[in-house]
Specification:
4-stranded antiparallel beta sheet, Jelly Rolls, globular, 5 helices, alpha+beta
């Protein structure tokens, strides 16, 4: 078992409280993906069925290929919406450094569902919490942008 990958998962909020045996099962089915600098993990609109956990490197999340939403580094995850809503990718993820990531597919989570239902449920709840945190952060950013826009309008 890859202890580095296990430690990485254990430190992540989406796997908080998940038993080591369940994480070890997940890791049995998670390939490592290597993506070179200036290459995409995926592009907005691509079909989606997995999330990625960065082990090494940095990425930028892009909307419409030019709007930078967020930079992520080792220990961060992206693509988790695919495991919740099964819709196409809502943004692109571009490697800004050479990257190594673990890929957890919907099929892998289904194996966990069949063998460790309570652990699967905990991961789903944690994913929902992570999405909620990101939505709150986005709400705050939009509110700040709106305030700045109002200030600009009042100055003009």
């Amino acid at each position: 078992m890859d202890k580095q990958s296990l430690s990485l998962l254990q430190a992540m909020p989406i796997f908080g409280g998940v038993e080591e045996s369940a994480l070890e099962l997940l890791l049995q089915y998670c390939p490592q993906v290597h993506v070179d600098t200036d290459c995409y993990f995926f592009k907005e609109g691509d079909s989606a069925n997995s999330l990625f956990i960065l082990k090494e490197g940095k990425v930028v999340v892009l909307k419409d290929e030019r709007i930078k939403l967020q930079y992520l580094s080792a220990g961060d995850c992206f693509g988790e919406m695919a495991l919740i809503d099964l819709n196409p990718r809502s943004a692109s993820v571009l490697a800004v450094e050479d990257c190594v990531a673990l890929e957890i597919s919907y099929q892998t989570l289904y194996i966990l569902y069949e063998q460790y239902l309570p652990q699967f449920t905990l991961i789903q709840m944690n994913l929902a919490r992570e999405l909620s945190r990101r939505l709150r952060a986005l709400d705050e950013r939009l509110s700040n942008l709106d305030k700045e826009l109002l200030k600009l309008i009042n100055v003009l």
